[in-house]
Specification:
By secondary structure, the chain is an alpha+beta fold. Helix content is 34%, strand content 14%. It folds into two domains: 43 residues, Pemi-like Protein 1, Chain: D; 33 residues. It has a two-stranded antiparallel ribbon with strand order 1-2. The protein is elongated, with a radius of gyration of 16 Å.
């Protein structure tokens, strides 16, 4: 376990050991959530973003599309939390 400090702008530097282990680089996307009384940060793979928006060209309503994406992401998040 490594201790990090929260700065004045609520920023936290992810320690080098953890960044290397999870291949987190500048501009990497992470999901930040809480589980019980813990702050949890999950790295998000760029592959997870591939194909987003491809259905919009097929005449699908943007609002319905976003709702569908949210459901899919919630299902993925639930699956990750169970594992």
């Amino acid at each position: 376990m490594t201790i990090a400090t929260v700065g004045k702008r609520y920023q936290v530097v992810i320690p080098l050991k953890e960044r290397k282990k999870l291949n987190i680089r500048p501009n990497s996307k992470v999901e930040v959530t809480t589980e019980d009384d813990k702050l949890v940060i999950y790295p998000i793979s760029p592959a997870g973003f591939r194909g987003i928006g491809r259905d919009l060209s097929d005449g699908i309503d943007a609002t319905d599309y976003v709702k569908k994406l949210r459901r899919e992401w919630e299902e993925r998040s639930d699956a990750l939390q169970r594992s």
